[in-house]
Amino acid sequence: VEWAARGVRVNAITPGVFETPLLKQCIDKEPEYGNRMLAKIPVNKFGKPEELLGAVIFLA
User: pTM of the prediction?
Assistant: First the structure.
């Protein structure tokens, strides 16, 4: 915001928790960990990398 007056624009994508092999490993070891994380996510699901594709292309 401080740099907007100078014409600097920044686009950012700040996704939440995504399904990754590491996340799967953690949940397999401790299933309750996944349940606790899901309870904090409003849509009650982990994101998938392909769900970001449209936003990334739009901002590119």
Answer: 0.64
